[in-house]
Specification:
The protein is α/β, with parallel strands linked by helices. It folds into 2 domains: 357 residues, TIM Barrel; 252 residues, TIM Barrel. 41% of the residues lie in helices and 12% in strands. The strands form 7 sheets. The chain has an 8-stranded parallel sheet with strand order 1-12-11-10-9-8-6-2. The protein has a 5-stranded parallel sheet with strand order 19-21-22-23-24. It starts with 7 loop residues before the first strand and ends with a helix. The relative contact order is 0.09. Bound molecules: glutamine (GLN) and zinc ion. Zinc ion binds next to loops.
Length: 777
């Protein structure tokens, strides 16, 4: 390996370990099997491994404190003493179990599910969890009060700096910036200006930075991704205040201010005016900002160029990257440039080399964190030594990109032709909702306040075991299918027995609502070891959409048919929508996301049409992740929502008017996207409302949402069985906001994470609530 003379930086690396060591250590610690010392030791080994790996690969600006036992936002909250009273902390060191109580609740029954993230168990609840910007990583939301005090409770960044130093590795500690920290927090109690807390927070950061400086740190990386968001005046002032403070307080510590996930945009001047020694910009998401930044930045600053994608898995076109940046940095002193990842590598898998079973044609097109480090080094060397010094690497990079561009595995003329043939008529139903509603009512003959569920029933240990042993080849497909059919039949019988109106088959055959479809569509690849952290100890292996998407054969029709054959009641067809499939995958970067989504939409459309042809009168298309895909900047929302809604319509409108299209969304904020929700024109939408006590239905009331709605009456994130009265109460609230003919009765979400012991009484109560409501009319 040769070292690049231009510094090469990763802004952070995955924490979980090549073989998910962190998860296994955590879970074994939580279950009481692993002593704390062993957990800490495992964490220490992981840090050492990633520092040495980076060093050995030629990374010269190696981060420390990017590691976290659970979450880096939680780390800061704990470090500055922002620990809500419920956790019983009374000053001093924060016990590890307090930290984990904030992460998972004190009973340790982390109950987070793909779609919603609060933890309502008994005992002390966990902090809320939400998406980290527009990634699929979730952070713990710090809670602040108006009179919040801050104090330095831990020296984690210092400890990890010294730990690396002991290994003879000089690191650049990473700390989440104070303004982003405050912006991401939740303010409890009366509304107050959270930025007013900044003057109290800065001395705590200052104390830490001083310790780092004394320990020998010359640079620190302070992350302020909030600089790519829409900021108001108070927030912008806060940014200025913070960095002025650090410049005066610790003048000889150099700050690399890291911005990522988008363009600085209207915060450009603000960022450029800050007294920091370095500025990192994301040139993958926002390549165009290089020109203005290089033109306007002070030449005594270091510019960190985020050139390698920390959000996606594709190998870069390195010669093209060099060509692209060349004009902008022509006048910039080379000794004031750093080559970096666009953002932390937290969001990509660790090492492609672990994927021994991946299609050999596909593999050279990919780069995970390890390969991306190599790419950074090549870029650094090309800039410092000239391209000829790395001619071979550049050539290989261009080759890989060219082979991908021309591969028949990527491009299907058939799919491309279908997408270009999409026309307006494929994007709406034949008649308006009111007319469809009466056709559907006549066909379906449902009672008022029809009851249904969202799709999945408990994925019991037996279901998981059967799937795993089938995957290992120990259980034949025939036996596996027989098992799944029995589960399905039991579920159908039981739903009939308790009197649900619209049944579901239970989704026992599905491992995951995206993976199940991806595995049957062409253009998708799946990995064996490419885990990325979703939150805490939960990791996911997102599908990789590498090529044009097509549906070679029906995906769900046989299961639906089987379920329907068992009963005279209606069974809903159950599909995942195109936007959700897109948002939960690694998406190819050689085609606009909107186009990829249209391809998926056409595949789902085919499935919808096939389900209808097989006799399904109701088909649900889940769009759990539609809202998640919203761009960070409000100004870009409309474009996204336009194509996202268009794709849902494309997927859903190929049916007759008497066929009822359902959709499901897992969240509770609709006010700002209600127009888009209405534009989807699903006949029925089910949403999560129980925890917000139907408040979110206000959006549907003011807006006069015209179609039918199932506001969730049963919080499936909790093991608690809701009483009949609780559900009738919620339904009364719903009736104050909607007309009766609109209302469906269903849980908040799918029941796959629950146990049958919880689901059975809860749904019996739900059906009873519906009966009481009908009786009272
Ligand atoms: N049909 C899916 C289920 O019931 C929907 C889940 C989701 O949207 N998160 O599990
Ligand atoms: Zn849901």
């Amino acid at each position: 390996m040769s070292i690049s003379k231009i510094p090469v930086a990763t802004l952070g690396v995955p924490r979980i370990g090549r073989r998910r060591e962190l998860k296994f250590a955590l879970e074994s610690y939580w279950s009481g099997k692993l002593p704390v010392a062993d957990l800490l030791d495992a964490a220490k080994k992981l840090r050492a491994a990633s520092w040495t790996e980076q060093r050995d690969r030629g990374v010269t600006k190696i981060p420390s404190n990017d590691f976290s036992l659970y979450d880096h936002v939680l780390d800061i909250a704990v470090m500055v003493g922002a620990i809500p009273e419920t956790y019983g902390w009374s000053g001093g060191d924060v016990a590890l179990d307090t930290y984990f109580a904030m992460a998972r609740g004190s009973h340790g029954t982390a109950d987070h599910q793909g779609c919603s993230h609060a933890n309502h168990g008994h005992g002390v609840p966990a902090l809320e969890m939400t998406k980290w910007f527009d990634t699929n990583y979730h952070y713990m939301v710090p809670e602040l009060s108006a009179n919040q005090a801050f104090t330095l409770t831990s020296t984690k960044p210092l400890d990890e700096f010294l730990e690396a130093k002991a290994l003879d590795i000089h690191t650049r500690p990473v700390i989440l910036g104070p303004v982003t920290f405050l912006k991401l927090a939740k303010c409890n109690g009366t509304t107050f200006d959270r930025m007013a807390l900044l003057p109290k927070l800065l001395p705590v950061y200052g104390a830490l930075l001083r310790k780092l400086k004394q320990a020998g740190a010359d640079w620190v990386q302070i992350d302020e991704p909030c600089l790519v968001l829409d900021l108001d005046r108070t927030e912008r002032n806060a940014v200025e205040l913070a960095y002025q403070h650090f410049a005066t307080d610790i003048p000889d510590l150099k700050i690399m201010l890291a911005t990522y996930f988008g363009a600085l945009g209207d915060n450009l001047d603000l960022a450029l005016g800050l007294p920091v020694a370095g500025l990192h910009i994301d040139l993958v998401r926002a390549p165009h900002q290089l020109e203005p930044v290089a033109r306007l930045a002070r030449h005594d600053q270091v510019l960190s160029l985020g050139l390698i994608d920390g959000r996606n898995v594709w190998r870069a076109d390195l010669p093209a990257v060099l060509d692209r940046i060349k004009p902008s940095i022509a006048g910039w002193p080379l000794n004031r440039i750093e080559i970096a990842s666009s953002c932390s590598f937290l969001h990509v898998p660790i090492d492609l080399e672990l994927e021994t079973a991946l299609d050999p044609d596909l593999k050279p097109w990919l780069a995970f964190a390890a390969q991306k480090m190599d790419e950074l080094v090549v870029l650094g060397r090309a800039l410092s030594e000239g391209r000829s010094a790395v001619a071979e690497e550049l050539h290989a990079s261009a080759e890989a990109v060219a082979s991908r561009a021309s591969s028949s595995k990527v491009h299907s003329p058939l799919v491309e032709g279908r997408v270009s043939a999409i026309d307006e008529s494929m994007m709406h139903r034949q008649v308006a909702f009111a007319e469809r509603q009466s056709q559907q009512a006549a066909k379906l003959g449902l009672p008022r306040f029809p009851t249904t569920t969202i799709g999945s029933f408990p994925q019991t240990p037996e279901v998981r075991k059967a799937r795993a042993s089938h995957a290992r080849g120990e259980l034949s497909y025939v036996d596996y299918e027989t098992f799944l059919k029995k589960e399905t039949e039991t579920a159908i019988r039981w739903q009939e027995e308790i009197g649900l109106d619209v049944l579901v088959h239970g989704e026992f055959e599905r491992n995951d609502m995206v993976q199940y479809f991806g595995e049957q569509l062409s253009g998708f690849a799946f990995t064996k070891h490419a885990w990325v952290q979703s939150y805490g100890s939960r990791y996911v292996r997102p599908p990789i959409i590498f090529g044009d998407v097509a549906r070679p054969h029906p995906m769900t029709v046989a299961w639906w048919q089987y379920a329907q054959s068992l009963t005279d009641k209606r069974v809903k067809g159950m599909l995942t929508g195109p936007v959700t499939i897109l948002n939960w995958s690694f998406v190819r970067d050689d085609l606009a996301r909107s186009q990829v989504c249209r391809q998926i939409a056409l595949a789902i459309r085919d499935e919808v049409v096939d389900l209808e042809a097989a006799g399904a009168a109701m088909i649900q298309i889940d769009e759990a992740a539609l809202r998640e895909g919203l761009p960070l900047r409000q100004s870009e929302w409309k474009t996204y929502l336009d194509w996202a809604v268009e794709c849902f319509r494309l997927a859903s409108t190929g049916v007759n008017d008497a066929t009822q299209i359902h959709t499901h969304m897992c969240y509770s904020e609709f006010n700002d996207i209600i127009d888009a929700i209405a534009a989807m024109d699903a006949d029925v939408i089910s949403i999560e409302t129980s925890r917000s006590k139907m408040e979110l239905l206000d959006a549907f009331k003011t807006y006069k949402y015209p179609n039918e709605i199932g506001p969730g009456v049963y919080d499936i994130h909790s093991p608690r069985v809701p009483k009949v009265a609780e559900m009738t109460e919620l339904l009364q609230l719903a009736r104050e906001r909607l007309v009766d003919a609109q209302i469906w009765i269903n849980p908040d979400c799918g029941l796959k994470t629950r146990k049958w012991e919880e689901v059975r009484p809860a749904l019996v109560n739900m059906v009873e609530a519906a009966r009481q409501l009908r009786a009272a009319m």
